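Q: For a teaching session next week I want to show students how multiple molecules come together into a single three-dimensional assembly. I've collected the sequence lines for a complex. Could you give me the predicted structure tokens for the whole thing so I can convert them for display?
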Amino acid sequence: MGLSGLEIFKQLPKTNCKECGYPTCLAFAMALANGKASLDACPDVTEEAKEALASAAAPPIKMVKVGAGDRVIEMGDETEIFRHDKRFNHPTAVTVEVKDTDDLDARLAVINDLTFERVGQEYSVDMIALVNASGDAGKFKAAAETVKGKTEKNVVLVSEDTAAMEGALDVLAERKPLVYAANKDNFEKMTELAKSKECPLAVKGEDLNSLAELVDKIVALGYKELVLDSGSRETSKVLADLTQIRRLAVRKKFRAFGYPSIAFTSKDDPQEDLMQAGVYLSKYASIVVLKTDKKEHLLPLFSWRANLFTDPQKPAQVQPGLHAIGDADENSPVYCTTNFSLSFYLVEGEVSSTRIPSYILSVDTNGTSVLTAYADNRYTAESIAAAIKSTGLEDKVKHKNIVIPGLVAVLKGSLEDESGWDVTVGPREASGITKFAKEKFA
Amino acid sequence: MIIIGERINGMFRDIAKAIREKDPTAVQEWAKKQEAMGSGYLDINVGPAVSDRVSAMRWLCEVTQEASKLPLCLDSTDYDAIEAGLEVCKQPAMINSVPAVQEKMDRVFQMASKYNAEVIGLAMSEEGIPKDAESRVALAMELVANCDAHGIPISNLYIDPLVLPCNVGQDHGPEVMETLRQIKLLSDPPPKTVVGLSNISLGTKNRELINRIFAVMAMSNGLDAAIADGCDEELIAAVATARIILNMDIYCDSYVDVFKNQNL
Amino acid sequence: MAVEILKEKYRSQVREVVLGATKDEGGTRSATIKVGGESTLPFLHFEGEVPNPPVVAMEVWDIFPEEWPQNLKDAFGDALNDPAAWAKKCVEEFGADLIALRFKGADPDVKDASAEDCIAVLKTVLEAVGVPLIVYGCGKLEKDNAIIGPIGEAAEGENLLLGVAEQENYKSVASAAMAYKHSVIAQSPIDINIAKQLNILISEMSTPLLDRIVIDPTIAALGYGIEYSYSIMERARFGALNGDRMLGMPMIGNVGHEVWSKKETFIPVDEEPGWGDQAERSLAWEAVTAIALLQAGMNILVMRHPQAVKLVKQNIDELMQDNSY
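A: Of course. Below is the structure for the complete assembly, covering every listed component.
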């Protein structure tokens, strides 16, 4: 949304000169707010006013990139507070912390190995955050060398010491790491470093006020590739700060907060660390830096991210095809549904609670539910028969009986003709499967 | 859309009689009935025939509040009467109304600030009701600027674009719709909007039909509130339905009942 | 430049529901628990009140939970054979705020336990612990309808939270709640419109029940459609705060029940080397599911693994710290 009439009016010269073609500046302001006039028509508008009005047209949160080449990670560019209004654009970058005092060879090997596959999607850790825990610039630079040699992952360089940062940047600048962080004491030098190497710069405040002040100072130095950290580390406070940063940027177009954000966990215990990361990932952090590098901790976190950042307008899909529930064999019953994830999971849950090993044939309906897909001609005798063939179902089971949802009982005849299988009409809702299975298959 | 129930008005015979005889029965019955049907405010108007408007307003406010917990909308051109009402209101009330005339705005916004009241501002000046949207919006902007100058949140201001009967000023209709849209661009957060709904149908043959069609059309142009017959079942159903279509309420099968029972 | 903190002003708040009843109130609980009452989105103390923290109920069954993965069973040991001992352990050792008693054994395909059997178990649990109770049937409609009345009657005045009323089957549970002074779980199938309608149907039976309803929006486990539940909960809560009184009830989620049937909780690491240690992964799966739902406004989490419970309770404690500006 653009500026309101009142805000535009405040930027106009208030001369009522009529040269724009409108009787008053107020009327011109309203025309601008309506998108019916162009600011160029005003002979007396100042440069500041032009800039203020132009920036109102910019997206509320700037897109900032970290990394180079095909490893670039895009952050920011968000427009929403609630996922149900419109999708969140850029999934949180999950970042694992390492220290320059760690056995880096070993730790990087572990982190490089953190790749997961779940429901056909592959995840891996997005970045490592290299912390200058030693406080020694030489060690930090040496660690940067190790990182350069041992991993291709993107990097957050964590040191508020400008000398240490300069050394590490000499090594890693071409990876375009995130420079963390400019604070109130070092910001001039840090900005210069980040700017000269064209790397994104994290800005660390002591609270929201000091963060906004610092951002303005850095922007005045001519750098806008920024990432925000309010400096808070307590779970509740970080949640509040991340919420304010997002809200003020999106709802109020508050420019100082119109950048991606970064949050650090503060726990030593890896499980507690995961809990904190879960909160920050849920509520708006563009980057979460956590300590645990265990697969069993990161898999749930990646799964939650995958879920949260799906497009709410698009139905989620499961892999179409034949799914075995339990130790299904050649005598097992076969249920047929769509590949809309909710339909599938409901059916899967009910079928597995029958405790009768079974198959579920998930027909590719482009992720639409049974009735929608039926209405849309995606769930038809032809498409089901084709799925029976393409999945090799006829070789998997020695019977020829398939259960279809009660909602599409009307398909029974045509499907029998089309496939040569016997069709049993199942219950209308998944919740009826247990009773149905007990009567039919137990 | 919030309905400001219009029935407690001295224009109606039963209310005029109640005021004359200091018998609150009719007033309180209408207060309860309008609340039960989903009104969000109760309009209080002593009517034209009262000699002492100040004491009549005070009395009406007192007895209405005994019967209903709804906030009141004090409807008078006599600002002393409004102030008398504000003094006895138990919760922030709404002042109905002030035109974009400087000395009147000064008085009303001062009162509003003192009593933390909301204000209905009329898009008209001493010269009367403008015809086109642009002039209406300009007057709305004056109201906004004055409201802001008194430190009152703009969201406490309800602008009435002023509606003429459709058999008299038919050409005003589209201008009112356009005004409703543009008012939302005046400030952020924008002022709210309100209309006196039944004005649109004054002197016509199809009053209820015209009222409710106008209500839903105005809603889709951003209308926030209407002073209306809070007991018109068809109007309530239409408003509830428009709220569903505009995604302002979450659908359920009994959404009309839910709208009526919102004060539960 | 001072940042102007953006505080939303909502029209309404979540209804506050009391669970359990003490001796003075006609029950035998040592204390009651209040849920709901918040006038802002989850944990945004800076703009509204969050008078009651979300609570964790731990699940106890009337039969030995054969189907649970070994690491989950190991966390309880022998107590799993005795509902009273099991409940006591949950409260005293693991800090459960409530006990969710599930009559799995009433399932005609399991033990077909009678109403009397269930009542006997209920009584021993009521005696063993002082916290309020949630009661679930076996999940089979006919049987649950048959036992819920007698169970409600046997615990008259205890203000149990009775599960579950559904759109097509709400009368028996709502009647038991009305007659014997209990509260009701109103369950809808990941559908906000049905959630709202069901509350209306229940309130038409008895208006006072409006303040004794807890919404179960049906949650899905992490990785299995949780985002649908998350968004429905956010919409319901946002609607509630903006004046939708028929969605303004506290919410409950059957986290343990959903999570522990998913393969992420039981597949051993040698079958899925990429997924890491099964024991640790399974409880993390439950805990992260709960953490996510808390951010969408969940008030009562029904969970299983003691360590997941501990992590979630700690997260709640941290999130209940004031964050006003």
